[in-house]
Amino acid sequence: MKSAEVRRKYIEFFKKRGHVEIPSAPLVPENDPTTLFTSSGMQPLIPYLLGQPHPLGKRLVNSQKSFRSQDIEEVGNNRHTTFFEMLGNWSLGDYFKKEQLPWIFEFLTKELELPKGKLYVSVFEGTGDIPRDEESVRIWKNLDVPDERIFFYGVNKNWWSRSGEPEHMPPGEPGGPDSEVFYDFGEELKLHEKSPWKNEKCHPNCDCGRFMEIANSVFMQYQKQADGTLKELTQKNVDFGGGLERMVAATEDTSDVFTTDLFTSMYRYIEVLSGKRYGENQEETRAMRIIMDHIRAAVMMMADGVLPSNKMQGYVLRRLIRRALFYGRTLGLLKDWNYIGQLVEPIAQIYGNAYPEVVTKAGEITLLLDEEAMRFGRSLDKGLAEIEKLPKLDGKIAFQLYETYGFPWEMTEEIVRRNGQQINRAQFEAEFEKHKAVSRTAAAGMFKGGLADYSEETTKLHTAHHLLLASLQKVVDPNIKQRGSNITAERLRMDFNFARKLSDEEIKKVEVLVNQTIKENLSVTRVEMDCTDAEKIGAQMEFGHKYPDRVSIYFVGPQDKFFSAEFCGGPHVEHTGILGHFKIIKEESAGMGIRRIYAILEVA
Length: 604
Ligand code: SER
What we know:
Blueprint: H1 3-16, E1 20-21, H2 46-49, E2 59-67, E3 83-91, H3 97-111, E4 119-124, H4 134-142, E5 150-153, E6 159-161, E7 174-184, E8 211-224, E9 230-243, H5 244-251, H6 261-274, H7 282-303, H8 312-328, H9 344-351, H10 357-360, H11 362-389, H12 395-405, H13 409-419, H14 425-448, H15 456-475, E10 482-487, E11 492-497, H16 504-519, E12 524-530, H17 531-536, E13 550-556, E14 564-567, E15 581-589, E16 594-602
Parallel strand pairs: 1-2, 4-5
Antiparallel strand pairs: 2-3, 3-9, 4-7, 6-7, 7-8, 8-9, 10-11, 11-16, 12-13, 13-14, 15-16
């Protein structure tokens, strides 16, 4: 089945069961400092899973653009991708297990016509006070899934939260047990993939490649408490996610997601450019998969406004592009740095209908990719010169080359061999692990102070963020629009379009206006309204965001004479008076035509 058909069937199936379709949120989450990218459909829905009423009701469905950078090193096998589309349906305190599992089974077996005999399911085996999920077992059995195809797993496999197992969840984070469906591609797969289970017992969740997870129903009914316990949420939610690529692969009974229609026109392009054939040689096929995945993800990110840089999302984007360029060497595409730009066209063809922004921005994205490729060429020269100068290379230096010049390990290794130097991959990996541990700690810090915990400080800064945007428009330029945002408990950060540095005087004036608005103690109110009405009154929208018909708008000041109105899910303070004293601590460039402001709130 083609991807567009699977996507459409899924949305229609749930619409028929009372769900309202919501648009995909952008890949870069706004006002959510907990993560760099939208990595699942539930992420933009956190406030509603925690109990805030959604303007479109209790049953929602969509296809969400998602990106998971943690999978970057896995890409190259038959099923891992960094970018993917997640088909999702949600019950916000409405239906639960007895509706969800039969619906998903019906969708997979009737709409997608997957043979029942090829489906395996997994169920949560229980932990501490949370019991084994007997109800799901009963439901699966009623659907004629036999015992031998029902598997039990613990918190490492059948518990879902954005931070994984319960002990890793920060206070405030929702999560719960889940029940997954796996498609069996058959035992013969062990002949094609490097399968660890040749010598071990295979099971659906062993990740050897024979089975592929295609559906995950999370029963999101718990919230982590400050004392470390899990408490039942006031509402029991369903959060379903299924990878579109994987579902399409299952309908075609192919274990290789890269041979589905989402990728075929891309690899045909690469085949023409390189003269190599997909599937003929293992190393070359791996390189093609990495290039396809990374450039597709890069294009989708750029379509949502991310620019290559050395920080945050821009850094991940740059890394994707450089890795793709590096793997082009495996295909003999060494000198044609600009070949990646040529992949924009097939990507725009595949995604144009679902995500028109890819088409409208195709020209701009191609130029950016070409420029990045040239820059990497120069960086490569510098890095190579650096390596020549070094008497001895160790893992630490290899990691620095990776960090500074974007040299993937494979590239450093190849050069060093050629030079007769000795280097050990284990040392490089040890450095990498250290780096990952530091990032995890930093991310946990970010998380703790983030909106997910609804801390008082973060909530105040979130309201101050709205005041800042409105003040910039009133004092500096009415055309200013927000281009990115990040809020922790300590400070806010806002990116916006503006061509030059702000003068000291402008900064001062903005601060004065925000502080004046704080002193006026204006009310902050949330109003649900039609999207068209919100647009008419000039409410600020998030860049690149497609909105549903009914939206939630936060007004600062009276609705008929507001100081600020923004499309936003909250949370916010009720009156500006409690914010304290607003201060801009830094103003800097964040890329071409983009400025960045850091600001804090001090005790008044
Ligand atoms: N949140 C779950 C996942 O990402 C289900 O949507 O798998």
